[in-house]
Amino acid sequence: MTEVSALRESQVAETTPALKAWLAGAEQKRPRRGDLVMGTIVALDAEGAWVDIGTKSEGFVPPSEMLTLGRHWQAKPGDEVQLYVLRADDDSPVVLSLDRAWRHRGWQELEAHYESGEPIEAEACDFNRGGLIVDCHGLSGFVPLSQIAGNPSQDGLALRLGDRLKLKVLKLNRGRRQIILSERAALHHLKEQQRKALLADLKPGEVRRGRVSGVHSFGLFVDLGGIDGLVPASEISWAEDNHNQASPKPGEELDVYIMKVDQACGRVVLSLRRTQPHPWETIAHRYQEGQLVTGTITKLVDFGAFARIDGGIEGLVHISELAERRISHPKEVVQRGEALTLKILSIEPQRRRLRLSLRQAQWGG
Q: Based on the domain organization, do 95 and 152 belong to the same domain?
């Protein structure tokens, strides 16, 4: 044996074990029925698709196993896709399915949404007497009539076909291929998320625009865009007695001042009156000493009577300013609730004091 021949035999001897190991590994990598594999599309047309899945020969996707392509998603040669192995015989190409892989991902997504409680999106594709049938990643789901928003009639179900619906997964059974969904629960979930986001965004001291959603003896409820805040009766007006004040009507839009936000309880306390200056802050621009005004008697005391002339402004009519004659108690001249013409004697905005006179308004002086 020549020196060259000996060298060649030595190289073959060293290479053969490595080659055998590689071939064994390749055989181990050959997929089996039911496996999910990744592959790269090599060719794609109406006759099917050829996909490189890392085996000795390319895998084949029949047209009947790629019906979701074009309806739910797009692909082209060079794209990497997930596939389900239908058949993997030793002497023929591996037969694959894009549709079954798509449905497998659909089950995974549905299970994830079921666990998290987050809504999923699906298209209404059919209906029956009981409700809507929807397409969830190639899987048929059912939305009972009672779980459809708006309580539609059976005839109205046809109008929902083609709609993309936000749905919450109520029940899943993969073995029975049972998927029960709810549009009403999904809308409730989304509204709750919006409410929580709005609640976190509200800050005491802000002024927000809202709509009156309810009027009660204890106050107003105002919808701030997903959460109702309460305006206590005492915060509707600067006037101490709100019963005689014009109250906002349901549906009316108005600005409200945020007084308190309770994140734990989800409660918001609002004020309507604090969006306006206190009447004492503007009294000097509206009234002057010597002016005659109409006032309503609100309280009688030994030393005189209090009268309200505007909103939250009350002034004192001293007992000496109630009549020309000497009296022992204000009830001899005036009664609570009585409206009278009064004269402004003095205005002290800083001290919030207003002196009034009935005597000088009626008899001069």
A: no
